[in-house]
Amino acid sequence: MRKMRMHSAQWRAATVLASVLLVGSMAACGNSDTGGDGGTKDDGKITMGFSQVGAESGWRTANTISIKESATAAGVELKFDDAQQKQENQIKAIRNYIQQKVDVIAFSPVVESGWDTVLKEAKDAGIPVILTDRSVDSADKSLYKTFLGSDFVKEGKLAGDWLVEQKKTATGPVNIVELQGNTGAAPANDRKKGFGEAIAANPNLKIIASQPGDFTRAGGKQVMEQFLKANKQIDVLFAHNDDMGLGALEAITAAGKVPGKDITIITVDAVKDGMQALADGKFNFIAECSPLLGPQLMDLAKKVHAGETVPARIETQETTFTQAQAKEALPTRKY
Ligand code: AHR
After folding, report:
1. Whose CA is nearest to atom 3 of ligand 1?
2. pLDDT tens by residue, 176-232
3. Is the CB of 112 under 6 A from ligand 1?
4. Buried-state track 306-327, b at ≥16 Cβ within 10 A, e below 16
């Protein structure tokens, strides 16, 4: 009997020990799979949840292609969501990615404000966030690992500087209309700011009307029609992107004016259709904004997943184009 009782006690102790070892080894497995940052997969592949702004422009289409192609090339499993220019859709997508325990979340915020709560949820879940293309105005910079994208203020400033140079001999008022991107978006806020600061150098340069055209061709056309009806003399159009400028071309032509001659047209992006309009003499100047962010984004995702420190800000390298430069660049333009 005594011998039997001893065996039973030993068996119980062995069972407890085995359970402890099993739980411990499962926990260890979980940690090594996540790289310490929240993923749960065991196939060595990084899963990225990406929330895209929408499909509002040629720029956005090129950006989406860049991200999808780069994910495939880098062996990153991509979960992709199109928010249709709505912040609530982006917040929903990010919450879904948190629930799915993806390894990295990346997104291009449709507007600058209102992200703190959802970013905190991602941080609490141990999932690193990368901002791409557009940034947020959160004071707590620890809510995201890095921001990869353009300097939109600089783009607006380059556009304004060019105009100041063109109009340096103007003796009377130069009437400017401005087509803004969607209200609250970083490129709309920043391009407006940069352009305004640059043209302040010449008091003859005046913005007589400024409205959002939501970065779309339809928006650009519709708002330009209103501008043309309400203002007798428009000398310059500054459109925050090519697509709105292209929409405005239709309105200008329909109003019996010659784009690029009667009205000087400055835009941002330099996508193929915009570059074609510039080469054809319908646009006058473009400040470039590159959508080809995919390869850098995948590289950053791998680094943050591995726990490496990455720079807090990575600025995209860009240039500007005159009509002659557009003619030269068009044949090899990638987007
Ligand atoms: O955030 C980048 C901007 O968004 C591009 O300039 C515009 O075309 C797009 O819709």
Report:
1. 187
2. 999 999 999 999 999 999 999 999 999 999 999 999 999 999 999 999 999 999 999
3. no
4. eeeebeeebebebebbebebbb
